[in-house]
């Protein structure tokens, strides 16, 4: 939508004509073929990336813009990934209640999903947050490693947990802060599939029970 900071944007496709019998690779988002130009990219050319650095699967959005209707941008440099508003429902621990708490908070501040992601990356840069695969997604030039939506979203979920944990209690409703902690904390599996449990107990905490 026009003016929506979380709307999907499209790159300009590089000028290229496929040679006769040229190799193609399948985008695993829209399942459409694109010319296989992964080798020139790896060799330091100006060709946009076509492959996730983590899972090694191929995606077309960074190359010429994925046309799948619900794709938010299936491949981009990590710092430029667009997650879209639909990610908010499961962003914190796959817990819809805690995710809504975070959504309500950033909405009250006028923050977009992109704003939240940028703030999380700033915290990583300053040493406040860490996440899995951090070394693989970071270079001397920043968070510019090509990564797919799925792998990038897993990292964003880890960072969003820390951001939710950092929200001051006085900035949250009493019904959120007055809940007792779940014994299993952030590792609880029940929070993902039993909404009443997610509402009743706080999961923004470490596990306190071992068996």
Characterise this structure.
InterPro entries: CHFR_Znf-CRD, E3_ubiquitin-ligase_CHFR. This is E3 ubiquitin-protein ligase CHFR cysteine rich domain-containing protein. It comes from Candidula unifasciata. The protein is mostly helical and 211 residues long. It folds into three domains: 24-80, Herpes Virus-1 (2-Layer Sandwich), CATH 3.30.40; 85-174, no CATH class; 179-211, no CATH class. 32% of the residues lie in helices and 6% in strands. It has eight helices and four strands; from the N terminus they run ββααβααβαααα. The chain has helices at 38-42, 61-64, 96-108, 113-125, 149-166, 174-177, 190-193, 195-200, and strands spanning 24-26, 33-35, 75-77, 146-148. The strands form two sheets. A two-stranded antiparallel ribbon has the order 1-2. It has a two-stranded antiparallel sheet with strand order 3-4. A hairpin with a 6-residue loop joins strand 1 (24-26) and strand 2 (33-35). Helix 4 packs across helix 5 (149-166). The radius of gyration is 20 Å and the shape is elongated. The mean pLDDT is 94.
